[in-house]
Amino acid sequence: MPGSRLVRRGVVALALAAVTLPGAPGAGAAPKPKPAAVVVATFDTGTNPFHPCWRRPGLTHPRSRTAAYPSSSKPLKLTFAKTYEESKYRSKKALAAVKPDTLYHVPGTNLSFYGGQGAATELVDNYPHGAQASSQIACGGAYGLAPDAQLVVLNWYDGTSSVSALMSWVARQSWIDVVHLNIQDLPTGIPDERVREVIDSGKLVVIAAGNGVAGYGASYPMELSAYNAPKGSLIAGANDNGGYTTFSNLDPHVVMDGFGTVAAQPYDFGSTSFSGTSSSSPRITGYAARLVADARARWGHSGKGLVTIPAGRPRPKSGPLADGTLTPADLHEVIRRTADPNPHDSRYDGTPSGSVQYPPVPQPADLPYAFYPKMGYGEVSEHTLPTALAVLNGTKPLPARPVEDAFYAASESLRR
Predict the structure, then answer these.
(1) CA–CA distances in Å: residue 85 to residues 7, 82, 120, 182, 267
(2) pLDDT tens for residues 75-100?
(3) Which of 272, 311, 344, 390 has the most other CB atoms within 10 Å of its CB?
(4) pTM here?
């Protein structure tokens, strides 16, 4: 799971292709009210809240974009200076005053924070890990796949914090839409009922596949596998521009490029490289948030659940939104079934295609499949976003993806 902090060379800035949504109002049409911004909660080691990629001038309170966001959220007034060190030093007093079990937002950014018993030291990433990963969810510029989302940071790394209690808190927050678990080395693991509690509350849960029972001492429940995990828990693996990697310990549902990807610096205002499912899982989380945001923009949203089409608004004639609501299980299936088994050169980094190529791991003799299923049902990326949106919008059918499809070879070299 730990992300590589390699020196980046020739990084290509990430720019998700703009997607034209069918049925969008034309010129002269009355502007529709903006639907609620998607809110993502991430469990990691904090973030770099001083990085300019989080700055959203004029955004003083998340309620201006998400009406259900609690008005009781307290402003955490950090100081943004010319350097990271100066910003951190001048924000020392504000950070020291942070109280446990209290929701904060950082005015002028799209960041929120909810801490445990060590809350005063949990937001700023000192590990570092969460700074890079969180930037790949919701930072602006070349970093995040969902820069319009509101990000809630929860730090699991402090031993005084209870992950189980934090997850129960997240489950009770109806305004949170997607949850990202980028967790390793937990002393007690995540109780399975907590994962189900979050899913049952109407949220998609994205789980980094590098944190499985086989890796890094992590203690996820055994039943969290790609084939019997509850629908709504999406296990995220990593590939390298479509090439096979050994980053995933849990068998994933889908993969995304996770080698030498562009991320924000943890202790500076620049960029760095990041690798593993530590990188691919936040990107897949951002991908999911982007799908929800685009569906809300297309069909409207009443503010309940992932997407709820308001009464009186037209609905698609087919697809998961035909009944007017999008559930975590629906979103899970759209992402899984529209994943592409064919490799692509990624625009997320500047590394050559297939920089990391490992031989396939042999399957047990009693399984009729050629390759160990570390690539899931395929790759999600800017290449698959239009197809996934078309399925959400009801203009394309949901592809059939039987379990056998999860055992695909990533490249011609691996098929031989």
Answers:
(1) 21, 9, 18, 26, 8
(2) 999 999 999 999 999 999 999 999 99
(3) 272
(4) 0.86
